[in-house]
Amino acid sequence: MASLQAGCAAMPWPNSAPRISIDNRSGRTLNALEISGQGFRQFLGRLGPAERRSLQVRPSGESGVRLRFRAGRRWIDTGEQGYIEPRGGYLLDLTVTPALTVRVDGRLRNY
What we know:
- There is one protein chain.
- The chain is built from one helix and nine strands; from the N terminus they run H-E-E-E-E-E-E-E-E-E.
- By secondary structure, it is mostly beta strands.
- It has one helix spanning 2-10, and strands at residues 19-24, 30-37, 40-47, 52-56, 63-71, 74-77, 81-84, 90-96, 102-108.
- The chain starts with a helix and ends with a strand.
- The longest helix has 9 residues, at 2-10.
- The strands form two sheets. Strands 2, 3, 5, 6 and 7 form a five-stranded antiparallel β-sheet that branches.
- Helix content is 8%, strand content 52%.
- It is globular.
């Protein structure tokens, strides 16, 4: 039993908070970048062309993810996209495209 508990302790995925990556493939600098969802909001500031940033968020329940940013003089608000839960090893990749749309790819960590 002790080895089973030790093995579970070494695999934190089922209880880990969601991890989100934002990849700027727009060719433009994204300013005033903010990510939010149910129970969380985080200001990320600036993300240059071809830059990528990863972060962990702590939603208060089932949630989508919303990005807001300024590119040049345009404000972009994606509305909620994707799906995450507070635990369970969710991974969400957000890619800002040259058209300033956001492509979302979500998955669970492999157990």
